[in-house]
Amino acid sequence: MLWDKIRGQTGAVNYLRQSIRKEKVVSGYLFQGPSGVGKKLAASTFAGALNCRVAPGEGCGSCPDCEQIIKGSHPDVHYLTPMSKSRQILKEEIDEMQRIVFLGSYSDNWKVFIIEDADRINIKAQNAFLKTLEEPPEKTILILITDQPGQLLPTIRSRCQKVIFGSWSHELMESFLMEKIVISKTESHVLHSISRGCPGRALQLSQEGILNDRKTLFGPLLDDGGSSARELSAQIKVWLDYISSRSKALSADLEKERVQWREALAPPQRKKLEARDESRVVAEERAELEMIFELILSWIRDLFICRETGGDNYIINRDMSDEIFAASRSRSQAQLCRMMEWVEKSRQLAEKTSARSTRQLIFENMLLQLGYWNLIFPAEK
Ligand SMILES: [Zn+2]
Known about the structure:
The model has no long low-confidence stretch (mean pLDDT 85). The protein is of the alpha/beta class and 381 residues long. Helix 4 links the parallel strand 2 and strand 3. Zinc ion binds next to helix 3.
């Protein structure tokens, strides 16, 4: 059955299953929760459960409808994702979706529209979208997926049935990672924290070698105050290069793919695909920066906990507890609190910023500030 594939989201799954069983399916849903925990999979599963004729309400997973839905090629299940360079869903795209919503259906299927990153529908488009949300045709469902519901207009939120998805627990993450890769308990604990409980992200980070890279990246923080301004700026370069490395690799991969389809497409289609690629690169870079913020915070938090409790029971980077112990002894509580506040503030600022260059500036500024603390307030011996 299709629902069995979704893990760690019992509440959301039960709710959706029940709504089909009790014939209480509504036309607008807002799937909210952290990214990478299964919201999109739940949306397509819901579409499968509604359209499967072999196992109605469940989805058999092997009939033509289920198979097409799993492959993403079902004619009545539509996806919308941010395509423009600004990573926004534009009014033209919403207009086109609305056209399909009101187009008569040839079959008796449920038409399902899955809108990923719905918080990225721009304001003009959100207003246009409201109309569809208010009076969609019968057997039509709109599912908005977001990890930032606050960015949607209240009028849109209030017209949707909210379905909440949560982060995965430590235990679930551990068993998931152990099925996929060779990993210790301590390492899975670290990955759980830096991925904020998102399994897909944790797996990706581990495959990219984050557990080892982390030690290089922690360089400036491991330092207990002896670094010069020159060393500091060299370290900042290491971090910035790290952030751009993955988006550069992705750009190169996409460019390789582009060579294959560029000539075969008409200019407008080509432009559209290129814009979509660019938005993927920007999204990748943003995710990378978020992860780095999380890493830095985890490190300072660990120093604080070690200092205050004298043990490593509650720390995240458990595999580095010796280094953390050594560093924690030479930092005062006040220093660590100030560092944490500064990183947290910078992270929030970077999250709100849409311009890539500004985000980078915020990050650089934060690192400089952290580094200067090391220079100005050398470790207490
Ligand atoms: Zn089926």
